[in-house]
Amino acid sequence: MHILTILVAILAILLPKPLSKGSEMIVRHKAYTLSYNKSRNTPNWVAWTLTANHTDGPVPRASKFLADPLIPRAYRVEYYDYKESGYDRGHMCPAADNKWNAQAMKECFYMSNMCPQDPALNSGSWASLEKACRQWAKTEGKIYIVCGPVYKNRKHERIGVSHVVEVPDGFFKAVLSLRKGHEKAIAFYYANNSKKQPYRHACTAVDNIEALTGLDLFADLDDKLEARLERRCNINDWK
Known about the structure:
- Keywords: Endonuclease, Hydrolase, Nuclease.
- This protein is α+β, with helices and mostly antiparallel strands.
- The protein is built from 7 helices and 11 strands.
- Helix content is 23%, strand content 24%.
- Strand 7 and strand 8 form a beta hairpin.
């Protein structure tokens, strides 16, 4: 295996390549790193590593959404900015991935980790994929995850009380395993609506998500390995 790939495999988090255009502020928390978009007041992406040991834990789910103290005040979305919008405060890095540590749980409820998400999607198809990822982390030992909103080339609905927050058209999630001899990647796209979207139907290649978003999601991988993994989409690889 290429030496860079070996080094990447031991890193805590694999981050996408910096944006070539658009608003980006990198914010690091205990369990995840995000790229914050100050024009939309949502993340461009959120990235974290999920290990088998972090798929459960003793910390109860937090009950309070908080403004992220690391975001400049002018762009610091508050919990009430989503009030009466019809949208959930949809976690990108989910609460159930952070039960292993109290600080991690608190920080995953920062509003910088949220996007306006259809309630049925949030509690249904999106939650089902989150649960599947935790099972894959147990099987693989460790997985790398990047997810975020998708904004297509049109005007978007806006919500907010003190801050304007743009509503995404959809959401992506990309998952990577570097388990030696079993390296693999897969991605998913969900429209931001109430239709049932089983993850087996939502799956696609990482290459397709990168074409849709303009992001380079696993940029630090060896180029040959990246090309091989990111063009493949087979949900059966993840049983």
